[in-house]
């Protein structure tokens, strides 16, 4: 392949990547796995401003070293820590996510943990005030069981508030609704993927021609 042909393919790829609203692998959620601050081998309640990215409507956010919660085999979904939305009462954890492109699609994902002994629990998830999903559990079993969630959402503003709200459905107010691995990533636009594929195909054809 000539140098000019190689530069042409690189230019196509760069232009395509530049049309995306954000890198497809860039998580726009800060501290989505609740690894900061570290609680060592225990748990702690933190006031607003103490946990990067997150706030609580009750001005307290509980972070757990997940293996201590209960039962053999209990672990965080990602890393070593998770947030318990029922800190000392039914709570709402929120984060304002910035850097969005209006009209662009994003993948919102998180892991919901059912904690043994908590009784029936419910967690409502919303973005920009629009409901996304509801997680429920009966608090049975002998270890935290994680349920992964992933939904495609569309940004309606450049900044949106992502919220996880615990509801009182008869379970314990201070034990339950574990949350981990929260992520919001851009979905590549089909046109961009098509153009990128064309550029890569051109590169392959040029290599064949050279051979």
Structural class: alpha+beta
Query: CATH homologous superfamily name of the largest domain?
Result: Galactose-binding domain-like
CATH topology of the largest domain: Jelly Rolls
Strand coverage percent = 25-35%
Averaging pLDDT over every residue, what do you get?
86
Number of E-state strands = 11
In helices, the fraction of residues equals 10-25%
Radius of gyration of CA atoms, rounded to a whole number:
21 Å
The total domain count is 2
Q: Which CATH C-level class of the largest domain is it?
A: Mainly Beta
Strand order of the largest sheet: 1-3-4-11-6-9
Give the name of the CATH architecture of the largest domain.
Sandwich
Give a summary of the structure in a few sentences:
The protein is α+β, with helices and mostly antiparallel strands and 211 residues long. The protein has helices at residues 3-18, 190-210, and strands at 43-46, 55-56, 61-65, 81-84, 92-97, 105-114, 121-127, 130-137, 145-154, 160-167, 178-186.
Care to describe what's here?
With 211 residues, the protein is of the alpha+beta class. The protein has two domains: 43 residues; 165 residues, Sandwich (Jelly Rolls), CATH 2.60.120.260. Helices cover 18% and strands 35% of the residues. It is built from two helices and eleven strands, in the order H-E-E-E-E-E-E-E-E-E-E-E-H. A hairpin with a 2-residue loop joins strand 7 and strand 8. Helix 1 packs antiparallel against helix 2.
SSE topology:
Blueprint: H1 3-18, E1 43-46, E2 55-56, E3 61-65, E4 81-84, E5 92-97, E6 105-114, E7 121-127, E8 130-137, E9 145-154, E10 160-167, E11 178-186, H2 190-210
Antiparallel strand pairs: 1-3, 2-5, 3-4, 4-11, 5-10, 6-9, 6-11, 7-8, 7-10
Helix pairs in contact: 1-2
């Amino acid at each position: 392949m000539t140098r000019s042909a190689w530069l042409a393919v690189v230019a196509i790829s760069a232009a395509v990547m530049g049309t995306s609203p954000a890198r497809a692998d860039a998580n726009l959620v800060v501290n989505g796995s609740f690894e900061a601050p570290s609680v060592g081998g225990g748990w702690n309640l933190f006031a607003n401003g103490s946990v990067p990215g997150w706030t609580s409507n009750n001005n307290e956010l509980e972070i757990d070293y997940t293996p201590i919660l209960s039962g053999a085999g209990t672990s965080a979904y990602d890393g070593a820590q998770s947030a318990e939305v029922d800190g000392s009462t039914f709570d709402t954890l929120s984060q304002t996510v910035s850097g969005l492109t209006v009209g662009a699609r994003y993948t919102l994902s998180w892991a919901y943990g059912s904690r043994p002994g908590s009784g029936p629990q419910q967690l409502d998830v919303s973005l920009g005030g629009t409901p996304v999903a509801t997680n429920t559990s009966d608090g049975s079993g002998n270890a935290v069981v994680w349920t992964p969630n992933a939904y495609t959402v569309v940004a309606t503003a450049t900044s949106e508030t992502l919220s996880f709200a615990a509801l009182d459905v008869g379970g314990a107010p201070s034990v339950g609704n574990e949350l981990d691995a929260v992520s919001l990533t851009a979905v590549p636009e089909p046109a961009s993927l098509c153009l990128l594929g064309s550029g890569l195909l051109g590169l392959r054809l040029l290599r064949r021609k050279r051979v």
